[in-house]
């Protein structure tokens, strides 16, 4: 749970200090006030990346060239932790006063899920987006994920470098490690698909699926022929890989096919896609909770919740989150909608954002 957040020089937010509630937190403000920037700060703190840009430099307030974000976290395994991330030409992360090598340790203590304008890329964009979903799940489900992923990526890049240099012997030398780590990585990804598939059809997502023309189904493509091992795929493809100067099969080619009513979800309507996204995000959260009951509940970020969804769809999503008792930050320009939600779910916290300043809103009786 994200108990408190402090940010400096994140986009138009000069400085913000917030104590969040453990349930629904509504962030209300006009267009351009800084609502998405606040969610972006949470995302950077949790994952070390933004959901709006690959370049953290862009997150820093124009003219400043640096930003800092700190959070007070709580989970049932570690108790209270203090996490921080700052950027000044490069990213540095720290946990409980110690500088970290990467950002993994914070991600583990702050599992986060988000739905925002870019989330549609998961359904309609490049396979990379869906591989990221599979790797996200593998990270939480399997303790050897980081080790195997780093092993595979290094061996894969070394093999590709050898292919570029037309050195068949060197390429072959990296294949055993790439095949072993790549096979394990693929097993983990397949297990995530199984978990997601099960939760997608669970009762917790039934509200999100209501009104859809059929079932949501997932099919995993591992990145090479199902009829051979990865070691065999590397060996069989080596001559052709040398001609092309890069490896054509392996985990870097994996994809997840998402189908609605038997058709690729990219052909579904925007409203249907939004429901599929919402069902997927709840399924992801259930995967986390399933690993660590009681301690693994995610922080959910919903940017511009009212956009692109009918009232019934939105109501069912908020209902599901409230029932599951997950912490959730929801932004909206619609303060009337915000007050309605706050009235319906006791314990909801409300914040108002105006010209980059965030203020808690006292709740009406
Ligand atoms: N690096 C930056 N430095 C300063 N301001 C920035 C930076 N990047 C974006 N902005 C500005 O910050 C403001 C807040 O943007 P943000 O996307 O957070 O608004 P929002 O409240 O989510 O708006 P909307 O409701 O329209 O989505 C915008 O005016 C934007 O132009």
UniProtKB/TrEMBL annotation:
<protein>
    <recommendedName>
        <fullName>DNA replication and repair protein RecF</fullName>
    </recommendedName>
</protein>
<dbReference type="GO" id="GO:0003697">
    <property type="term" value="F:single-stranded DNA binding"/>
</dbReference>
<dbReference type="InterPro" id="IPR003395">
    <property type="entry name" value="RecF/RecN/SMC_N"/>
</dbReference>
<feature type="domain" description="RecF/RecN/SMC N-terminal">
    <location>
        <begin position="5"/>
        <end position="337"/>
    </location>
</feature>
<keyword id="KW-0547">Nucleotide-binding</keyword>
<feature type="binding site">
    <location>
        <begin position="29"/>
        <end position="36"/>
    </location>
    <ligand>
        <name>ATP</name>
    </ligand>
</feature>
<keyword id="KW-0235">DNA replication</keyword>
<dbReference type="GO" id="GO:0009432">
    <property type="term" value="P:SOS response"/>
</dbReference>
<comment type="similarity">
    <text>Belongs to the RecF family.</text>
</comment>
<keyword id="KW-0227">DNA damage</keyword>
<dbReference type="GO" id="GO:0005737">
    <property type="term" value="C:cytoplasm"/>
</dbReference>
<keyword id="KW-0238">DNA-binding</keyword>
<dbReference type="GO" id="GO:0005524">
    <property type="term" value="F:ATP binding"/>
</dbReference>
<dbReference type="InterPro" id="IPR001238">
    <property type="entry name" value="DNA-binding_RecF"/>
</dbReference>
<keyword id="KW-0067">ATP-binding</keyword>
<comment type="function">
    <text>The RecF protein is involved in DNA metabolism; it is required for DNA replication and normal SOS inducibility. RecF binds preferentially to single-stranded, linear DNA. It also seems to bind ATP.</text>
</comment>
<dbReference type="GO" id="GO:0000731">
    <property type="term" value="P:DNA synthesis involved in DNA repair"/>
</dbReference>
<keyword id="KW-0234">DNA repair</keyword>
<keyword id="KW-0963">Cytoplasm</keyword>
<dbReference type="InterPro" id="IPR027417">
    <property type="entry name" value="P-loop_NTPase"/>
</dbReference>
<dbReference type="InterPro" id="IPR042174">
    <property type="entry name" value="RecF_2"/>
</dbReference>
<dbReference type="GO" id="GO:0006302">
    <property type="term" value="P:double-strand break repair"/>
</dbReference>
<keyword id="KW-0742">SOS response</keyword>
<dbReference type="Pfam" id="PF02463">
    <property type="entry name" value="SMC_N"/>
</dbReference>
<dbReference type="GO" id="GO:0006260">
    <property type="term" value="P:DNA replication"/>
</dbReference>
